[in-house]
């Protein structure tokens, strides 16, 4: 019977093609290589720990050789002790809180301003032609330069600090977003368009997520700039209304020629910078890149 | 027992696409380039049409006109489907979304609720034989699998939740298998035919591969180059197992295509 034959042939055909598809999929699927955690630990953490130990060792050797007087180069042990003292008295927490909360608030404010700004600069040619160069210029202008002007405008208040922080970080974040959007493969917005995305939905569902790696790099740089600007502002503009942050702590040490405190302050500033990078930005970046198959090597 | 061959082809179809006297010119004055000229083309509802042509025949321009991404310089373009959906040579999946969320995206953009669009996306992934792989990211899939996700996404865009009456939709395909290796292409052509039969979607498929056109299409339309005009149309014999007729057709079309190309040599 021809009819029955055809239906059997169709079923067999379907089963054949299902098997062919399954076989191809099995052969072609990219293989994910996973490295055990201890190997990742060795690769990611051991080198910086060894490097740090070497730096402290060199420091100790230079101090012990006494080529520099004690008031210029303190012993690593003394700095660690001063550091420990601030922890015991709890002073360190109020200092850190003052500075870090300010930097974080300033950074968040910068995000709120820079994100729409970057989007507009990237997508509206007239705006890009108009203020694109200005944004890049502002990025290369050290935001410390704004401190004197800000003190004249706002006095020794938080407004001065935030003003300087914003001018430091907004251009970086906005430029990062612009670069991120520029690097989006043109096929993605095109695909978004034929799937029905326009205007806000295009930005929300296609452009912003596609630009996320570049945007995140901009945010990272923006954080570094806002932290740097904050320290500069705190060192230059010290006043009772501003409280004692890390910058003021450093300045106080310098004012009384206490090199140990100066070193402890510098180390703390460095530790906060590295800590935020390792605890916030690195995991975020890793997640974003890994989801896109662009994982970092370590 | 007799088999009535005439019933294989539905006698009268609604029109999914109607182009009449369509021309498209880019630029003006001396530098103007006419991509398409005097195109008359009708595609029935649920029909599979391959548009074949060498480089510069305006294939992509034609698809852009059908998708509504571009407007014709003269003539009329009538498309029945509310939203023609598009498939490219690249899968063009959003790399930050899982396979399932990629298929959901057009439904999300159309404003469908989470549960409904998830169920529909899972259904479509199963249709392209990617059941259970919805959680994979595009970079974890092979090229052929990505292109199938893209097909599922295009079907989601074309047919929505698939519950509207006559929601076969219109699928525009711009050489979707050209970037794949020969084995995968062969398998995916079969898959596309299976999916097309299962969904009743209208397909306009652009290619420069005569074999592909003859294998897939019910009707092959040959375009000339610079400007693109319809040279000839062929109806492919139904049934699929009549290799002799297909070979003859393949040779016939290849011959005409060769003529079109050589006419540009001078």
UniProtKB/TrEMBL annotation, chain A:
Pfam families referenced in this protein's UniProt entry, alphabetically: BPD_transp_1 (PF00528)
Bilayer-crossing regions: 45-66, 103-122, 134-155, 230-250, 262-281
Gene3D superfamilies noted in UniProt: MetI-like
Keyword flag Acyltransferase: no
Keywords for the protein's UniProt record, in alphabetical order: Cell membrane, Membrane, Transmembrane, Transmembrane helix, Transport
The keyword Membrane is assigned to this record: yes
Major localization listed first in the record, in broad terms: membrane
InterPro entries in UniProt: MetI-like, MetI-like_sf
Domain of life: Bacteria
Entry's localization field: Cell membrane
Mode of membrane association: Multi-pass membrane protein
Domain ABC transmembrane type-1 stretches: 96-280
Family stated for the protein in its record: Belongs to the binding-protein-dependent transport system permease family.
UniProt-recorded name of the protein: ABC transporter permease
Lineage: Bacteria, Bacillati, Actinomycetota, Actinomycetes, Pseudonocardiales
TrEMBL record, chain B:
Residues that span the membrane, as ranges: none
ABC transporter domain segment(s): 17-250
Keywords per UniProt: ATP-binding, Nucleotide-binding, Transport
Pfam family, one: ABC_tran
Protein name: ABC transporter ATP-binding protein
MF (Gene Ontology): ATP binding
InterPro entries: AAA+_ATPase (IPR003593), ABC_transporter-like_ATP-bd (IPR003439), ABC_transporter-like_CS (IPR017871), ABC_transporter_ATP-bind (IPR050166), P-loop_NTPase (IPR027417)
Keyword Nucleotide-binding recorded: yes
SMART domains: AAA
